[in-house]
Amino acid sequence: MPAIVLLCLAYRMTTALALTLNEDERTWLAAHPELRLGVDVSWPSFEFRDEQGNDHGLTAAYVRLIEERLDVKLQPVEPSNWSAILE
Fold first, then answer.
1. pLDDT confidence of 8, banded at 50, 70, 90?
2. Which region is the signal sequence (predicted)?
3. Is 2 within the bounds of a domain?
4. Which of 24, 57, 61, 78 is least enclosed by beta carbons within 10 angstroms?
């Protein structure tokens, strides 16, 4: 029973955090449905990639949540170094 209560509370917390965008933000996202995201997959447990090429970790979980809430696609890009990520 406690597990069910915790699951219900966790679900409620995630659905309660709906994003409200202004008109300019909605227009910009509509014009940019796919966004590039610089990643460094050598930082387990924040970012890492499995043998099949799937992204995992805390960052991947946030990326999925942002994609879902904003209805956008974040395209991971793995640059050669941190300077390239910032460009």
1. low
2. 1-18
3. no
4. 24
Does a structural domain hold residue 80? yes
**How many domains is the chain partitioned into structurally?**
1
**pLDDT digit string, tens, across residues 15-60:** 556 678 899 999 999 998 889 888 888 878 888 889 998 888 888 9
pTM of the model: 0.65
Q: How far apart are CA 77 and CA 71, in angstroms?
A: 19
Beta-strand relationship, 73-77 and 34-38: parallel
Helix (H, G, I), strand (E, B) or coil at 77: strand
The strand ranges marked E within 1-87 are 34-38, 42-43, 47-49, 55-56, 73-77
CATH code of 43's domain: 3.40.190.10
Residue whose tokens read 């915790």: 6
Q: Is residue 8 part of a domain?
A: no
* 4 occurs within a structural domain: no
